[in-house]
Amino acid sequence: MLGPERSYFSPGRSGLYTMNCLRKTVFLAACLLGLLPPALFAQDSAPAKPAQPATEQEPTSPKQQPTGPIIHAVTTTVVVPVTVKDHDGNLVPDLRKDEFRVFEDNVEQEITRLSVDPYPLSLVILIDNDLRSKDERQVEPSLVSIVGGLSTYDEAFICRFDQFFHEGTGFTKNQDTLITELKRTDLDSSRPSYAAPGGPFNGPTVNNAPAPGAPSQPAGLQAIKGQTTKALDDAVYAAAMLLKDRDSSKRRKVILLISDGQNGAKFNSHSYDETRSELLRQGIFVYCVATGSSYFERKFNRLVNYSHDTGGDIYYGASQQAFSEFYSRIAEEARNQYTLYYSPKGERKLDYHSIEVRVRREGLTILARQGYYGGTLINSSK
């Protein structure tokens, strides 16, 4: 028996409600029969999201560029390593920035920064291969003690010179390798640096050839009228070239020159001024250890000049023990320098600029290079 007929109309409901119910019934039936894709059903049956208020969208456009010219400010910073000693030759470690004064081309500069951080060394050990026998006996056994002053972060390159430059095997940080190479260094004192009596090439000649029985001169070494054949300037220049690719902002570039200071001007391809310019351009320090003969005979001007102009130092050795002590002191000095920074003011047209460093504390010795070329600057752009 059929129950009472149900109407889709009820009090408070409109005919529109009935129409919507019928439409949904037809839609569901179509989905069940596969006539419509389920996605449409899901979309239609999902609850409606509240409408979002409309927001004003800014038009997408390329990033605005400044209409005026772009100005790049270039700041030039000069870096000056400085060694300060007391009257006993000991390093002075407690100076403050305001105790230093720097003059460039006689104009005082404002020191912007002072650093006391130690630097690892890139060291070329340049050994005179043409010493007198007495000097050779003092120097040769002392060479191995050079390694005692080096740290594991330092690197060294062992070279020798006489009339020619004898390049070693390259830079190494391996101290065992350095010790082995230094032990094998043989300073050949049999090759004289002065001509012996009897002829311009160490002996009498017949038809431009050595006379029978005349002592022979080793190949490559010649001397005229007692002039030394050593090419010291060329050797220092060649050592500087070995340091050229080392970064002076991260390492101290040093030449340790062990010599009697004798130099044959006619046997050099590079002059002192040319060599000095290269040293200053690269920021290389030359530390010299002069042998006893050079000290007593006052023939060490070249050594003094190289060390003084580059901010290095010179020591005079008269015994094997003295040489060994000097090597350690030199490594300590080179590694533990004050580093001054300033942005130069004044005329900038010249390529070379003189430098003078002073300290306000009395009784101290200041070692710093005497000037610089453009290659020793740090340029930073803003």
Report on the architecture of this protein:
Helices cover 25% and strands 23% of the residues. By secondary structure, it is α+β, with helices and mostly antiparallel strands. The chain has 2 domains: 74-116 and 340-381, no CATH class; 121-201 and 219-335, von Willebrand factor, type A domain (Rossmann fold, 3-Layer(aba) Sandwich). The strands form 4 sheets. The chain has a 6-stranded mixed beta sheet with strand order 7-6-5-10-11-12, with helices on both faces. Strands 1, 4, 13, 15 and 17 form a 5-stranded antiparallel beta sheet that branches. A 4-stranded antiparallel beta sheet has the order 3-2-14-16. A hairpin with a 2-residue loop joins strand 8 and strand 9 (209-210). Helix 5 (232-242) packs parallel to helix 6 (272-282).
